Amino acid sequence: xxxxxxxxxxxxxxxxxxxxxxxxxxxxxxxxxxxxxxxxxxxxxxxxxxxxxxxxxxxxxxxxxxxxxxxxxxxxxxxxxxxxxxxxxxxxxxxxxxxxxxxxxxxxxxxxxxxxxxxxxxxx
Length: 124
Description:
Layout: H1 6-27, H2 43-61, H3 66-84, H4 95-121
Helix pairs in contact: 1-2, 2-3, 2-4, 3-4
Protein name: VanZ like protein
Keywords: Membrane, Transmembrane, Transmembrane helix
């Protein structure tokens, strides 16, 4: 029987909630997007941060499914850009957003790897 550690369960739940939040923010029309100050003007940083968090949480929640996670997140980032380019929500498609998503994923996977190493064996 599969036994999940409590941190894996928590990471999975937070991953799914975060993914829902990222998708909601990505598909809100520009007029309805929340004004959260300086971060609104840092689009690429927002993309990288969101996908770093998603990759780290996903990697901690499903450590045996890292390749599937990377494919899912890459597909999600591409789908967001394609749908934003459809002009249904007043957003623009930008290929550099997908580059920022991938950079964020790499950073998030690195952070998750460090976290797992420290938890498992106390390695640096």
